Amino acid sequence: MTSKTAQELALPVGVTLDRFIMASQSAFPYATGELSQLLRDIAIAGKIINREINRAGLVDIAGGNGTENVQGENQQKLDIVANIRFIRALKNGGEVCAILSEEEEDIIYTGNEHGKYVVAMDPLDGSSNIDVNVSIGTIFSIYRRVTPTGSPATMDDFLQGGRKQVAAGYILYGSSTMLVFSTGDGVNGFTLDQSLGEFILSHKNISSPNNGTIFSVNEGNYYSYLPSVQKYLDNCKQRGYSARYIGSLVGDFHRNLLKGGIYLYPSTKKDPKGKLRLLYECYPLAFIAEKSGGKASDGFGAILDIVPTSGHQRSPIYVGSAAMVKESVQP
Ligand SMILES: O=P(O)(O)OC[C@H]1O[C@](O)(COP(=O)(O)O)[C@@H](O)[C@@H]1O
Ligand SMILES: [Mg+2]
Ligand SMILES: [Mg+2]
């Protein structure tokens, strides 16, 4: 099922997410409404997490949780809160039969065995920025299950490959809260009107500039990157490009999507396979990048063409404006 762009649907900036989803669905005679409902459930979870984040400093959900996730990372309390809230919203929505989360090793079964979709998610991205009031996000990737409905989902449902995503996107909790997603054709952004509690279409048919002058990378790892990466970064600096890195993938990606730029997390001596997770960080952002005219590579080929082998595998990533990604992998 490919969606129609907001353009083709003649939907003006200012329409609500619900109206946009309904109009998109009506463009497809065979649509059954389940994916539409799932997108609504994600929006609801986003509003709840947004509220938790806004008041994190006021109530006892700031700081570390004293536990580790499957990646061996210290979990923040908000990582856990976001994970729980997202799982609950998808369970209650009824469309999702299983979830793979950054915060849990194994598949999470929702009990909706008749649900046709599975979701891979990074409930809270940019965890190192949670307590310091810097933009953070949620990233999600949606697949139609390949196992029969009525039976328990398996890893096969999650390891279909990036090009099998039926929808993907992120929620950015920044100076405003935005939901950006694609169901295959066109990328649209919705800003949360806090007073109405509604996501409103604010960025219609986002198109990634082909080139840019912003590069986002952890320069602290410079001497741990491959010489080819060092050469590319030197080129950027010699040209006087702006270095912008907030340490929240969603925040850095979103800025570069709108302004033109590149985010890269190449392999390092510490993380030779890269740091970011393929299924719920790289694939969904690569989907958004490609559907908006940008590119996403692992240094050898397109991220979306990587054949996945495990749920929490990592990958190097170079993502953003097409011309910059192309140069970054062949400086
Ligand atoms: O601190 P580093 O090594 O630069 O890594 C920062 C990157 O790691 C991440 O925080 C990883 O995501 P999580 O916070 O979801 O674990 C990205 O958001 C960010 O771009
Ligand atoms: Mg993340
Ligand atoms: Mg995370």
Automatic annotation (TrEMBL):
Pathway field: Carbohydrate biosynthesis; Calvin cycle
Record domain Fructose-1-6-bisphosphatase class I N-terminal: where: 16-204
Residues noted as binding Mg(2+) 2 in the record, renumbered to the chain: 122, 125, 281
Primary location class: cytoplasm
Domain named Fructose-1-6-bisphosphatase class 1 C-terminal: residues: 209-328
Alphabetical UniProt keywords: Carbohydrate metabolism, Cytoplasm, Hydrolase, Magnesium, Metal-binding
Catalytic activity: beta-D-fructose 1,6-bisphosphate + H2O = beta-D-fructose 6-phosphate + phosphate
Free-text remark on how the cofactor is bound: Binds 2 magnesium ions per subunit.
GO biological process: fructose 1,6-bisphosphate metabolic process; fructose 6-phosphate metabolic process; fructose metabolic process; gluconeogenesis; sucrose biosynthetic process
UniProt cross-references to Pfam families, sorted A to Z: FBPase (PF00316), FBPase_C (PF18913)
GO molecular function: fructose 1,6-bisphosphate 1-phosphatase activity; magnesium ion binding
Names of the cofactor(s): Mg(2+)
Family the UniProt entry places it in: Belongs to the FBPase class 1 family.
Family annotation (NCBIfam families): PRK09293.1-1 (NF006778)
Identification of the protein by name: Fructose-1,6-bisphosphatase class 1
Source species: Dyadobacter luteus
Phylogenetic placement of the source organism: Bacteria, Pseudomonadati, Bacteroidota, Cytophagia, Cytophagales
